[in-house]
Amino acid sequence: xxxxxxxxxxxxxxxxxxxxxxxxxxxxxxxxxxxxxxxxxxxxxxxxxxxxxxxxxxxxxxxxxxxxxxxxxxxxxxxxxxxxxxxxxxxxxxxxxxxxxxxxxxxxxxxxxxxxxxxxxxxxxxxxxxxx
Length: 132
Description:
The chain is of the alpha+beta class. The chain has 2 helices and 6 strands, in the order ααββββββ.
């Protein structure tokens, strides 16, 4: 009969717990980055997930809601569509509904937008500002 001590030499050396925790943390972070990049490719958007930060679109969207964005270039933005855009100098994305589309030429399109819960219409937003 073989002694159990013979099998001990085939076992790997003891692994430091901190090394395992570090490896686990690195795997979680790399998985999250791969999922994020995959969403960017699938949706065609630089920011595929956006959190609603204000109540301007209530009752359609409430503060804290998560929006999954798509950027379908083949489907033009029309009146009634909900868009997400950024204004120069502000890092916060704005979620509004398109009230009117101003198209002087195919290269010069602007959108008049308004939050469903807002009384004021936002000034024209150029097409290049639109994230969605």
